[in-house]
Amino acid sequence: MTYRSPIDDIRFVLDHVVPFARVAETERYAEATPDMVEAILTEAAKLCDTVVAPVNINGDKVPAKLENGVVRTSPGFAEAFRAIAEGGWIGVAAPQEHGGMGLPQTVNMAINDMLSGACLALQLNPLLTQGHIEALEHHASDEIKALYIPKLVSGEWSGTMNLTEPQAGSDVGALRTKAEPKGDGSYAITGQKIFITWGDSDVVENISHLVLARLPGAAAGTRGISLFIVPKFLPDANGKPGKANSLKVVSLEHKLGIHGSPTCVMSYDGATGWLVGEENKGMAAMFTMMNNARLGVGMQGVGVAEAACQKAIEYAQERNQMGVIANHPDVRRMLATMRAEVFAARAIGLACAVATDMQTATGADDWAARAAFLTPIAKAYGTDVGCMVSEMAVQVHGGMGYIEETGVAQFYRDVRITPIYEGTNGIQAMDLVGRKMMDGGEMAYRILEEIEDDAEAARAALPDLAGDVWSAAETLREATEWMVGQDMTERFAGAAPYLRAFARVLGAHYHLRAAVAEGGKGPRSALARVYIRRLLPLYAAHLAEARDGSDGIMSLSPDDLAS
């Protein structure tokens, strides 16, 4: 099976489902005309389909390995990465003054969707580098920007994010890595970091690590954390990799999936680094990178789901068991469910990217709040869909799905990390009902009002679908009012199902827009009916769980659960 980038679906979403036209109307992104965007996506699709996708199986079968302190990547990865870098794809959204294209994040996320479907393990490298660039752009000194960003944009160097330590995972404030001033403007960084994606490789000449560490006398918790840039090789006077820094890869993790992506245990032993941003403001700087990465990870889930969906449909059309299995109602149910979920998740992710671009282009607080609100939903729902669709693709294959030779199990294993890294989906849900509702639910209500207005406008043409979407939005509004009135314990107890319910209603909203754009007749309208009539009703169950409160789950002690 050959992966085919879903360029038609992406263009349809941009043209008819999310307001991307508004991005191109801004002065900042005036160059992102329909013709230019189509040309860029077409070229990116060729790269994904012909260069990147063929090495995906290599990453699974021949994992990255550590040899004499250097990470050796999977066969073909170096060549595929060079093609990505030389094509300028790392710097799609990077500033033009540093060699980037300066295009909207929406275009960048559409490309990351395709790259993830082609080879998730390799796509992780440019994804982290892009986040690295954004963190430097917003927080680093002019000298650091001028030295590092062009190298990162060109793909000569790559970037990482170093947060996690053995005792400090989601609780970042518990980190122990320390930074000692050296008296010359630099710092000595000492400590150990784990789960460092692409912490080393042989595909670039230097690697730039963004490392969270604590200065002497800094406050405990996240308030005392600073951010430092720590290169593998110290740049010389000409900006070239010079002397090796005092850091090393201790080992590589053996993982369930993404075997081609080296996940490193990093050791820093007085390594030289430079402060990025203000002292003790490291979390704010790192969150710039993390927010970029969270949307990117959501699109990773979409991309892998797309690839798994394609593989399942192709197999179902060829496999003959009492007739071609694609014609069996239950198999058809699975295929339609997979395709409907992928469309909804893609639309939510690209809508979030549009809000991010509008925030960048206009500086409007409303767009900033919208982007912030949609980010945890895009991350959690996109990655949940990645897992669900990949699991369903195995099921469509039957027993052959459990056999490695068919290749479908790789999607299942690879995508399983996405609901975990860059903030688990549980943390995304708590962020949604916590920080993102500190406005009293104002942005939630605004989005729900838009959904109801669209549904009202569609009633005449599509009364059966529009009515269901309107009713779901109104019920979700009532649940949101309840959620806003609760304390944080109650909110957190129902956070995950509440996020799922919101994603369901958003997905139905975008499917309804697709059906309206198609005139109510055709495959997209039929897919909208599958989603709205079969999948949307799940929101009611999610809200029932969300509103049950904490008593039921917290009354069971760990000992009760263990007995």
Short descriptors:
563 residues, alpha+beta, Butyryl-Coa Dehydrogenase, subunit A, domain 1, Butyryl-CoA Dehydrogenase, subunit A, domain 2, Four Helix Bundle (Hemerythrin (Met), subunit A), 3 domains, seven-stranded mixed β-sheet, two-stranded antiparallel ribbon, 21 helices, 11 strands, globular
> Mean of the pLDDT scores?
95
- Stretches with pLDDT under 50, minimum 5 residues: none
Which structural class matches the secondary elements? Answer: alpha+beta
How many beta-strand elements? 11
CATH superfamily of the largest domain: Acyl-CoA dehydrogenase/oxidase, N-terminal domain
The CATH topology of the largest domain corresponds to: Butyryl-Coa Dehydrogenase, subunit A, domain 1
Residue share in helix: 55-70%
CATH architecture of the largest domain: Orthogonal Bundle
Largest sheet: 7 strands, mixed
The whole-angstrom Rg is: 23 Å
Number of helices, counting only DSSP H or I runs of 4 residues or more: 21
Explain this structure to me?
It contains 21 helices and eleven strands. It has 563 residues and is an alpha+beta fold. It has three domains: 7-153, Acyl-CoA dehydrogenase/oxidase, N-terminal domain (Butyryl-Coa Dehydrogenase, subunit A, domain 1, Orthogonal Bundle), CATH 1.10.540.10; 158-280, Butyryl-CoA Dehydrogenase, subunit A, domain 2 (Beta Barrel); 425-550, Four Helix Bundle (Hemerythrin (Met), subunit A), CATH 1.20.120. Strand 8 (233-235) and strand 9 form a beta hairpin. Helix 7 packs antiparallel against helix 9 (282-318) and helix 9 packs antiparallel against helix 10 (329-362). The longest helix is centred in the middle third of the chain and has 37 residues, at 282-318. The N and C termini lie far apart (47 Å). The mean pLDDT is 95.
